[in-house]
Amino acid sequence: MNTILVSSTWLNNHLNDSDLIVLDASQAKTATGEKSDLENIQIPGARIFNLKKDFSLQSSDLPNMLPEARTFEASCRRLGINKSSKIVVYDNLGVYYSPRVWWMFKTMGYENIAVLDGGLPHWVSNRYKTEPKVCSRFNTGDFTATLNSKHVKTFSFVKQNIKNQDSILIDARSEKRFKGLAPEPREGLASGHIPNAINIPFTTVLDTDCFKTKTALKAVFAAYNIKDKPLVFSCGSGVTACIVLLGSTLVLTQETAVYDGSWTEWAQHKDSEIIC
User: Fold this and answer.
1) Which residues make Cβ contacts (< 8 Å) with residue 248, sequence separation at least 6?
2) At 86, is the secondary structure helix, strand, or coil?
3) Distance between CA atoms of 68 and 108, rounded to whole angstroms?
4) Is 242 one of the annotated active-site residues of the chain?
5) Which residues form the Rhodanese domain (predicted)?
6) What is the phi-psi region of residue 103: left when phi exceeds 0, alpha when psi lies from -120 to 50, beta otherwise?
7) Greatest CA separation found in the chain?
8) Which of 76, 135, 210, 235 is catalytic?
9) Across-strand partners of 48?
10) Quick one: pLDDT at residue 84?
11) Tally of CB atoms within 10 A around 133
12) CATH 3.40.250.10 occupies which residues in the chain?
C-alpha cells in the first residue's frame, strides 16, 4: 500500500483483505468544541485508536504529546497490529485526527499506513456499510516502534530557529487565533503566534471533507512562497498541524516535523516570545 491517501472506494474494495487494519481515530469533540453527528457508528471492523488515553504521553500536562516508543508499541500490539499490517486510519469529522495518527506511525518508523480521504462522512455519503461503534479485544500483535526523533521538534529547537531560521515554522491555527484576534479554546492561554511563523490554516489544504487536488495544494504552498527549507508544523496541540504537514507531503519534497508542544506549550512557557 504505497500511498498516503486512499479513497472510500478503494477501502470498500479492500475491506476484507486479511492483513488490513482500519483504525477509527475519532474523538468526542475537538478543542474548539466541534462534534460529529456520526459519533455512534464506524466502518465495519474498525478498531478504536484512543488518541487521548492510549496514544498520548500521560505524564505530560500538555495535550496529545507523542508517547514513548515502548508505550506506542504496546498500545498498537493490544489493537492486534502486526509488523505486516496494512493500516488505514480515519475519523468522523472528515480529515481531522487521522493525519495526526498517520504522522505518529511514520514517526515511530512504520510506513504502511494511509489516511482515508474524506473520512467517515465521505464513506457514509457513498452509502457504504457501517455498524454501531464497538470496543473489542484482539490477539496481541507483534508491532515494533522505533522513534525517528527528526520528526519531532522541541521548544528549544523552535526558540533557536527564531534566530537562525534554518527551518520554516508553519502554524495551522485559524488566522484570527494566529493574529491574536480570537481567544484560544484553552482557558487562560494567550493569543498570538511564534515569531517568524507563517500562518496556513488547516482548512486551506482541504476541500470540504477531503484534501484538495495536488494542483490546488501546489498553488496553496506557492502562494505562501515556501522556500526549499525543512518545514516544522505547529497548531494548538499538535493535531491540525499534521493536516497541513500531510498536505505538504503530497506535493513538496523537503523534510517535515511537528513542534509537538505547539502553541499550548509556547504560550505558557516563561522563555517564550509572543507576537500578535
Assistant:
1) 170, 217, 221, 226, 231, 233, 256
2) strand
3) 9
4) no
5) 16-132, 163-275
6) alpha
7) 53
8) 235
9) 24
10) 97
11) 16
12) 5-147, 150-268
The predicted pLDDT at position 276 comes to 80
Question: Which residues, other chains included, contact 186 with Cβ-Cβ below 8 Å and sequence gap of 6+?
Answer: 31, 236, 264
Low-confidence ranges of the chain (pLDDT < 50): none
Q: What pLDDT score does 31 carry?
A: 87
Q: Where are the beta strands (DSSP E) in the chain?
A: 5-6, 20-24, 41-42, 47-48, 86-90, 113-116, 131-132, 152-153, 168-171, 198-199, 206-207, 210-211, 231-234, 256-259
- The single-letter code of the amino acid at 41 is I
Answer whether 0.85 is exceeded by the pTM: yes
Integer Cα distance of 235 and 178 in angstroms? 9
Amino acid 1: pLDDT: 67
CA distances from 18 to 10, 85, 188 (A): 15, 9, 48
Task: Report d(CA 154, CA 225) in Å as an integer.
Answer: 25
CB contact at 8 A, 233 and 170: yes
HSE, CB side, 13 Å, CA atoms: give it for residue 236. 22
Q: Which fold has domain 5-147?
A: Oxidized Rhodanese; domain 1 (3.40.250)
Strand ranges across the sheet with 231-234: 152-153, 256-259, 231-234, 168-171, 198-199
Q: Are 117 and 7 in contact (CB under 8 A)?
A: yes
Contact 98, 91 (CB under 8 A): yes
Dihedral, 200, 175, 167, 6 alpha carbons, nearest 10: -30
- What is the CATH superfamily name and number for domain 150-268? Rhodanese-like domain (3.40.250.10)
